[in-house]
Amino acid sequence: MYAIETTNLTKKYKTLVAVDNLNLQVEKGKIFGLLGPNGAGKSTILSMLCTIINPTSGSAIVNGYDIIKDSAKVRQSIGIVFQSISVDDRLTARENLRFHSMLYDVPSGIMEGRIQEVLRLVELEDRADSLVRTFSGGMIRRLEMARGLIHHPEILFLDEPTIGLDPQTREHIWDYIKTLAEKEKLTIIMTTHYMDEADLLCDDIAIIDHGVIKVRDTPEKLKSFLVGDNILVTTNLPDKLATGLSGQDFIIEMKVSQNSLNLNVRQGSRNAPQIINIARDLHIAVDSINIDEPTLHDVFLHHTGKNIREEENDNFISMYKRARRGR
Ligand SMILES: Nc1ncnc2c1ncn2[C@@H]1O[C@H](COP(=O)(O)OP(=O)(O)OP(=O)(O)O)[C@@H](O)[C@H]1O
Ligand SMILES: [Mg+2]
Fold first, then answer.
1. Is residue 203 part of a domain?
2. Is residue 35 one of the residues assigned to a domain?
3. Phi and psi dihedrals of 181, rounded to 5?
4. Would residue 327 count as lying in a domain?
């Protein structure tokens, strides 16, 4: 049985298709990452799987339960740490966890023990009785995780777990996620727009854009694409050059556009002369040839046609500050 299995899962907002006929299977015990730019549909997928919103069409089975027919059972079996802040900063960490335990019907006889257990897991034992408003962003994230784990869920959903956090805190959170997956034998479904985060944590990644999965694979396989260099050849006969180059074993991929040919090749510098030779043999004039060193973002760019915007990192912090001001 899969932890998650969706069939043509779709969410529309009027004319906007936020999630488009998603067919996804995630094995139990894996850390699965949904990687995509802003507005790709990541949170919408999570919200449907967590029964927060209903799909427009299609279905999904979470932990063996149907998200529409058995939504209460789905909710009991999952933990949620979403982009918006859900802990109350006027309460202490322990009070927040008590409140959440009651919501999730954790029996009162074991509640305090559970609270201690999750506080230990996220290393917040010594701040258990401090007001959350005195916590740093990273501590709040960890408390959110403790909250999501208190009822011993089988699946933990994490929406952008480290957004807006400093590099050191991000690394801490990564350690927690890895430890959790190993110790608690949890299935973790997370979204991120950090390539490095997905790479480090996830057993499996789906790159998503406009509500559609563009590619799904292990980070290793996705990265093996990166062994190639990008070469841009400017020529008025890109089609003819592409035909002439097809079959060369150093070529991974070719894309023809107007007046240029985009190549992804193994050992770009070494093989560039061969490209020029083939063009010359075919009497194709090459105006310029540029070789680019690949970056991690190239994989993403290749599959979505856009860069992951890093400036959105500040969302979490500004959201938190707004939430505080609103009180
Ligand atoms: N309640 C809503 N009403 C209308 N449109 C919505 C609503 N919620 C989401 N959308 C739209 O659906 C699309 C997918 O949004 P979603 O929040 O799932 O993206 P995301 O991948 O999580 O983005 P981000 O990286 O910014 O968190 C976006 O175009 C968004 O504007
Ligand atoms: Mg989102």
1. yes
2. yes
3. -60, -40
4. no
CATH code where residue 25 lies: 3.40.50.300
Atom of ligand 1 nearest to the CA of 14: 4
Do β-strands 65-66 and 57-62 pair in parallel, antiparallel, or remain unpaired?
Answer: antiparallel
209 and 241 share a domain? no
Q: Which protein residue has the closest C-alpha to ligand 1 atom 3?
A: 13
Is the shortest distance between the CB of 11 and ligand 1 below 6 Å?
no
Domain ends where: 218, 233, 254?
218
Residue 63 domain-assigned?
yes
- 42 C-beta closer than 6 A to ligand 1: yes
pTM over 0.85: no
Ligand 1 within 6 A of 44 CB?
yes
Residues 193 and 57 in one domain: yes
For residues 145 and 268, membership in a common domain is answered with no
- List Cβ neighbours of 3 (8 Å cut-off, separation of 6 or more): 26, 27, 28, 29, 30, 62, 63, 154, 155, 187, 189
Q: Tell whether ligand 1 has an atom less than 6 A from the beta carbon of residue 63.
A: no
Candidates 115, 205, 156, 63; CA nearest to 71 is 63
Domain total in the chain? 2
Residues 196 and 72 in one domain: yes
- Looking at the CA of residue 193, tell me the nearest atom of ligand 1: 25
Q: Which of 10, 20, 22, 42 to mutate to test the pocket of ligand 1 (most atoms within 8 A of CB)?
A: 42
Supply the range of the domain harboring residue 232.
223-294
77-131: pLDDT as tens digits: 999 998 778 899 999 999 999 999 998 889 999 999 999 989 988 889 999 999 9
Ligand closest to 315 (CA) is 1
For residue 47, give the ligand 1 atom closest to its CA. 18
Tens-digit pLDDT profile for residues 233-291: 999 999 999 999 999 999 988 999 999 999 989 888 889 999 999 999 999 999 999 98
